[in-house]
Amino acid sequence: MEHPSIKTIKCTGTPYEIGFTHGSTAVEEVLSNIKTYTSFFQETAQLTWKQARNRASEQFIPVLKTKYPSILEEMRGIAEGSGHGLLLEDILALNVRSEIALTNYADGCTTLAQAGPEGKIFLAQNWDWIEQLRDGMVILHIQPPTGQGYETKILSEAGIVGKVGMNRAGVGLCLNALRSGALDISGLPIHCMSRRILQYAGSVDEALSMIAEFSIASTGNYVVADRTGDFLDIEYSPHGNVIMRASAEANYGYVAHTNHLCGPDRPAQLKDHPAANSFSRLKRFRELTDADNRDNREPSFQSIRKRLSDEEGFPYSICRERPSGAVGMERMTTLCTIIMEMKSLTGVLTIGRPCKDLIPIKWSF
Predict the structure, then answer these.
(1) CA–CA distance from 6 to each of 118, 210, 240 (Å)?
(2) How many helices (H) and strands (E) does the chain have?
(3) What number of CA atoms fall less than 13 Å from residue 84's CA on the CB side?
(4) Alpha-carbon separation of residue 294 from 250, 288, 289 (angstroms)
(5) What pLDDT is attached to residue 4?
């Protein structure tokens, strides 16, 4: 079995203290991620790190000061906790990497929300991204001050404040990147909105209200669920949002998504630039999920992991491998798999391709 290598960081206190703990505990990982994204910005957007940092600051410090000042304080804490002369602007550049890259490149993911037996609700995701980030992931266990949101567990990249996870209220979130040039800097960056939902939303409806109130600067997709059994998929963009729900006819209803726009009646001016494998992965994942439903196979951690381990279309499969001879940003592989169950507030994370024999990391509150 392959042993997992990922830090779990327990962060408590004020936003600055939460950030300082994050940064001081993950110094090597933060520095490594800055090195990786320095190459990423140069290759995908022809920007130096200094240029990316300046763009991030000019575009997003004003809106974050107005809409989410506490997250800026947390980023400042990450920078000062990491040391090595890092500034708030360096950490901000990590957190807005999706907005800087836009159409140039996006990570790949296969996501699912599915109803299970006895009121269970599963959320799951394969995260496909450049292999250098495997050693830059962290688990953030955040306990904010009383009255400032819920205890939260987040799978993220060191230095980035939000990504995929769940909170003690029973709300979970998964994320798909979408390549689109749409940008509105009056909205929150994707990873900041992910964090806000995970820290403050007590239901799917509250998550939707936050997206409507604060808006999101760029284009992407969330799969959101809560412990009451509510779940949905939302493609969000500066031009409007499209919500998709499970078919009422399925015995174990589900929504699934990869990395292209697929919602009905989406805004006409919204365009994306997906890779061809996004369509084949979604088609295959739906086939596998529909087959389980036809066979009345109950959704479980095991059955969902099996679907996420599928290698049809290798190496551009659901369980992705770096293509032979790939260079630069094409060195994409499945870095990890996370499966969460909202009713019990439990989850299982594996680091690496799920088709391998991996030691699981269990989540719970």
Answers:
(1) 32, 30, 36
(2) 10, 14
(3) 15
(4) 9, 10, 9
(5) 72
Q: Closest Cα partner for 142 from 126, 158, 162? A: 162
The per-residue pLDDT of the chain, averaged, comes to 95
CA dihedral (150, 156, 162, 163) positive or negative: negative
CATH topology of domain 108-364: Penicillin V Acylase; Chain A (3.60.60)
183-224 residue pLDDT tens: 999 999 999 999 999 999 999 999 999 999 999 999 999 999
User: Domain coordinates of the chain in residue numbers?
Assistant: 7-101, 108-364
Alpha-carbon Rg for the chain in angstroms: 19
pLDDT of residue 288: 98
Model confidence at 103: pLDDT above 70: no
What is the Cα–Cα distance from 137 to 30, expressed in whole angstroms? 9
Q: DSSP alpha helices (H): ranges in the chain?
A: 15-25, 27-45, 49-67, 69-82, 88-95, 97-101, 190-200, 204-214, 276-294, 301-308
Amino acid symbol at 65: K
Assign 205 to helix, strand or coil: helix
C-alpha distance across the termini of the chain, in Å: 26
Tokens of 202: 């007590």
Instruction: Give SS3 for 44.
Output: helix
SS3 (DSSP) at 108? strand
